[in-house]
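Entry for the shared binder. Reason: the reviewer on the internal report wants the predicted structure included alongside the sequence.
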Amino acid sequence: MLVKFTCGCVGLVGVLDDPVVIHPCDLNDPECWEPLGLHTRPSLADKGHEPLPAAEAEALLKRLNHLIGDGYRLRRVQNIFRT
């Protein structure tokens, strides 16, 4: 289930032993060490969380799909230059 933790991080619970963060709350911080992606964060195991509203979940999934598509397009361009 996609959830929002009390700190503001967005992630998944119940997939692994530790929560999986997709959108860290410190992502907008210029010194953020984790980009948007999938990361385990054991420190969130004891934090409260609530289900992510459907509109926010849809927006996040759309953003992730866009990033995946960008990666695919980049690999296609790289392959063109390799031949």
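Summary line for the report: Residues 9 and 25 are 4 Å apart (CA to CA).
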